[in-house]
Amino acid sequence: MSQQEMLDRFLEIHSKIRSRFPQIEQDVFGNKRIYLNSGAGTLTVDFAIHALASKAQSSNPQPGDIDPAEIATDLLHWRVRQFVTDFIHARKPEEISFHFSTTHALFNLAYSLRTILTKESNLVVTDLDHMANISPWEDIWGLEKGCQIRRAKVNGEGCLDVDHLLSLIDPKTGLVAVTMASNGFGTVVPLKEIIPLIRKKSHICLICVDGVHHALHGPIDVQEMDCDFLAFSGYKLFGPMLGVLWGKEHLLRKLVPYKVETNKNESPYKFEQGTLNNAILASLEGALEYLLWLSDELAMNVEQKIPLRRDKLRFVMNAIAEYEGKLSQLILEGFQRLDTNTFRCYGITHPKRILERDPTFSFDISGKNPKEIKKYLWEEYGFHIACGNHYSAAIYRHLGRDSICRASFAHYDTLQTCKSFVEALESFSN
Ligand SMILES: Cc1ncc(COP(=O)(O)O)c(C=O)c1O
User: Fold this and answer.
1) Domain assignment of residue 300, yes or no
2) Same structural domain for residues 349 and 231?
3) Which distant-in-sequence residues (6+ apart) come within 8 Å of 227 by Cβ?
4) At 289, which helix (H) or strand (E)?
5) Which among 229, 252, 286 is the end of a domain?
6) What tens digit of pLDDT does each residue of 251-269 get?
7) Which residue, 78, 147, 215, 372, shows the most beta carbons closer than 10 Å to its own?
8) pLDDT class for 430, splitting at 50, 70, 90?
């Protein structure tokens, strides 16, 4: 299928896609709205909602191997681990553990590296990341263990300053924590190119990737990227609120997470504290099932249907990226019409550079504070955007701001929404 055919097909089935998201046109209180806050949490897809409700009724709390209900729970856990394995192209389901949130997963991971990192190690974090991939390293390894923590800068275009990052790495760099994409500026980090350069400068360096902001926007392939750890969150992938952590098996074997004595001392069990939430796991499975459904819908005939699950997931995430590129292009072209004396969008703004960003746009309108802008867009147009620091170091540390407006889009948003959004800003800022 050519790019154009894919785009046409996406548009052809777009109302069907939207119909799978019960809150697409109104919030839970019945208020009409246009949700432009997917960066803070996507809309939940019906597959995930139904799976959650059904499993909440039927699941057995503990997995086991005798009673059918406990066997079903055991199978569920391993099915979801295998599904995630396919989604991010991990090697084995044993590499996947489930956590309360990504923040929780990364604090767990940071603590468990106590057998690998030493007091002599230095660590590198970035000013582009979400604080969830900064504070665990700064708190546990910087403040508590006294390691040097180095901060890679962001350049004037809102991109990670790769030269600066590389200049911080030496043979004692034990870990680089870096995001796939900024939840502040939408900028995508070219990790496939950067990771080999990091490895050249430090042979012992581990690379921990935050996949949360990018997971809904494009394919993830941990083998191709060659990182060591990656985390993402279900609620930013059309599903439930949980964190997922992946790590290379041989590394996971060496790690010592905090765990109760009676918990199995092997991966993935040793990374998981307490009883897993079965309904939430079923819901994550539902969210991933939705992606398979979308892949089949995008295929125009039976011959085009893709047999292997990993290939289907890659295909559908590429299709989503393609469609979202169109959304970004419309928005960035629209922004070019706005008065540059009053309106400013952060990050990459040239419409030809859409491949370097996700459809997440932080912006300012001079003379208006972010809350005023958010209120106006809600009251006049029904747009639900975000304002705040978004826990983004790009906003909080790099820009030094407590609050900024952010509109973030996903594949269920329409081309018309993008146009209307720019028009609303135009009426406000010109
Ligand atoms: C890029 C990014 N990383 C990490 C997180 C933290 O995820 P969680 O809320 O699951 O801890 C978020 C949440 O906003 C995020 O946007």
Assistant:
1) no
2) no
3) 191, 195, 207, 208, 209
4) helix 278-298
5) 286
6) 999 999 999 999 999 999 9
7) 215
8) low
Q: Is any atom of ligand 1 closer than 6 Å to the C-beta of 41?
A: no
Do 333 and 379 fall into the same domain?
yes
Residue 21 sits in a domain whose CATH number is 3.90.1150.10
Nearest CA to ligand 1 atom 7: 102
Q: Which of 209, 233, 284, 390 to mutate to test the pocket of ligand 1 (most atoms within 8 A of CB)?
A: 233
DSSP letter at 383 equals E
Rounded to a whole number, what is the largest CA-CA distance in the chain?
70
Q: How far is CA 218 from the centre of its chain?
A: 10
**Do both 55 and 83 map to the same domain?**
yes
- Is residue 303 in a domain? no
CA–CA dist 418, 357 (Å, integer)? 16
The share of the chain scoring above pLDDT 90, in percent, equals 93
CATH number of the CATH domain containing 164:
3.40.640.10
The β-bridge relationship of strands 173-179 and 122-126 is parallel
Q: Which residues contact 197 (CB under 8 A, 6 or more apart)?
A: 162, 166
- Please check whether residue 313 is in contact with residue 86, taking contact to mean a CB–CB distance below 8 angstroms: yes
**Same domain (yes/no): 25, 122:** no
Is the confidence at residue 166, as pLDDT, over 80?
yes
- Burial class from Cβ neighbours inside 10 Å (0-12, 13-18, 19+) for residue 53 reads middle
Q: How many domains does one find in the chain? A: 2
Q: Which structural domain range is residue 141 located in?
A: 50-286
Q: Would you say residue 260 lies in a domain? A: yes
Burial (Cβ within 10 Å: 0-12, 13-18, ≥19) of residue 414: middle
139 and 81 co-located in one domain: yes
pLDDT tens string 236-254: 999 999 999 999 999 999 9
What is the average per-residue pLDDT within 100-126?
97
Measure Cα distances from 357 to 54, 117, 152, 223, 426 in Å. Answer: 37, 33, 19, 22, 23
- Residue at 293 is within a domain: no
Of 286, 320, 350, the position where a domain reaches its end is: 286
Strand-pair partners of 407: 361
Mutate to test the pocket of ligand 1, among 97, 99, 102 (most ligand atoms within 8 A of CB): 102
The answer, yes or no, to whether any atom of ligand 1 lies below 6 A from the CB of 130, is yes
* Same-domain status, 206 and 318: no
Looking at 338-414, list the stretches that DSSP marks H as alpha helix, in order from N- to C-terminal side: 370-376, 393
Q: Is there a single domain that holds both residue 159 and residue 180?
A: yes
The residue type at 165? L
Residue 371: alpha-carbon gap to chain centroid = 25
Clarify whether residues 408 and 344 are in a common domain.
yes
CA-CA distance, 204 to 62, in Å (whole number)?
39
